[in-house]
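B., you asked whether I could sanity-check this one before it goes into the benchmark set. Here's the sequence:
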Amino acid sequence: MSVKTKYPVAIVVTFLWIGFVSAISFMEAWLKFQANGITLSLGLGIGQLVFGALNKVEWIFAIAILVQYLNSRKLLSFSLGFYYISFSILILQTFWLLPDLDARAELIIQGQIVPSSYLYFYYIALEVIKVICLTIFGIRLFKK
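And here's what the prediction gave me:
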């Protein structure tokens, strides 16, 4: 039995996006600090590299979905709202959270004491919301 969909690219890309965010934000981010020999500075440096790369890949995914939407213009507006939330979160992370988190990480790597901040918790909360929205969006893409 085969299943046909109007949005194959959007479906594949949406679930790849979910997988990338889940693997990096919910596993790699804290697991790297469990490895022997990983210092806070080294872990933060790895995090900057990995999250910078993830952000670039997320933009590729977001644009691929947007291109398919612009080519078809038949997505349900309700479903598309979940994509727009995810896209908005990506914008916030790219232009506010990641630069601020990178700046804090640089200060820590240089040995400076930085005041506590909730930025990391905001980032994780937004990642959870993004994954939930992408999951709903991706599932709704299967519906006729």
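One thing to flag: The chain has a mean pLDDT of 92. Otherwise nothing jumped out at me.
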